[in-house]
Design a protein that fits this description.
Blueprint (H helix, E strand, L loop, with lengths): L2 H4 L5 H10 L3 E5 L3 H9 L4 E4 L3 H4 L11 H12 L6 E5 L9 H15 L3 E3 L7 H9 L4 E6 L5 H4 L9 H17 L3 E5 L3 H10 L4 E4 L7 E4 L1 H4 L17 H17 L11
Parallel strand pairs: 1-2, 1-8, 2-3, 3-4, 4-5, 5-6, 6-7, 7-8
Helix pairs in contact: 3-5, 5-6, 6-7, 9-10
């Protein structure tokens, strides 16, 4: 579609248009300026500054330890590298659950200090008040249902969610709610493909899936997984487009060898 070239800036409105026109939405994570520039230049629609930075950038086991200040640092780095994509930033764990005033303050800080375009929150009815309060300030909110990694200790596992009828029904109701109160899009993580497709057809806002099949309005992956920088994470839904772990390791190993053998620098590589 030629529509891709014409869009100078992706907005929340653009994503709504994509859904209505049947154009799939591409979304990928970034956490720093250099990577954000590359991903944006490749034509990405949405860049998510994910709290997955806690895992891939900081080496934590879960997304829980990352702070608001750290998210603002990552987000501001990404925003400086982006010309076209919509930049969405995760509100980290502990900054919106059960306290809508703190949720609003946190979202405002992300928008003001990082220059982000929207925030993402995990959960449905239980965080309704926080979402509504953020929306009243004119800040766009992306929802996130299914496997919500910030609730890992509640679930106790990263397995597929909403396979049981009751959980599937709650997910549907939460999706309707997030649509109704004004979220502009919804991430569906690790839920059965049939349920994800049902949700996508039932609500007016775009859905973006990760491990939720092809029936969603878009797809999101973690850039470090797609590029093969991370090695341990091998879920069924992940397609590796490169194996950068080995490529970078080999290049660095060659550099070490060249330094040790006095091959680097040679006469052309000095002044």
């Amino acid at each position: 579609m030629s529509v891709h070239k014409e869009i100078k800036r992706i907005t929340t409105n653009t994503l709504m248009e994509f859904k209505h026109e049947g154009e799939k939405i591409s979304m990928l994570t970034a956490y720093d300026y250099s990577m954000a520039r590359i991903i944006d230049a490749a034509g990405m629609d949405v860049i998510l500054v994910g709290d997955s930075a806690s895992n891939v950038m900081a080496g934590h086991e879960t997304t829980l330890p990352i702070t608001l200040e750290q998210m603002i640092y990552h987000a501001s780095s990404v925003v400086r590298g982006v010309k076209r994509a919509l930049v969405v930033v995760d509100l980290p764990f502990g900054y919106y659950q059960g306290n809508s005033r703190l949720a609003l303050e946190s979202a405002i800080r992300i928008m003001k200090e990082a220059g982000a375009h929207a925030v993402k929150l995990e959960g449905g009815a239980e965080i309704r008040e926080s979402i509504e309060r953020i929306l009243t300030a004119g800040i766009p909110v992306m929802g996130h249902l299914g496997l919500t990694p910030q609730s890992i200790y509640k679930f106790g596992t990263y397995t597929v969610r909403a396979k049981e009828e009751a959980e599937a029904q709650k997910l549907l109701e939460d999706a309707y709610l997030l649509d109704k109160i004004g979220c502009f899009a919804l991430v569906l993580e690790k839920i059965p493909a049939a349920l994800a497709e049902k949700v996508s057809k039932s609500i007016t806002i775009p859905t973006i899936g990760i491990g939720a099949g092809g029936g969603t309005d878009g797809q999101v992956l973690v850039s470090h997984d797609l590029l093969g920088i991370t090695q341990e994470f091998r879920p069924r839904f992940l397609r590796r487009y490169l194996n950068l772990f080995d490529d970078i390791k080999n290049a660095v190993g060659q550099y070490v060898q060249d330094v040790k053998s006095r091959d680097f620098p040679n006469e052309n590589e000095q002044y």
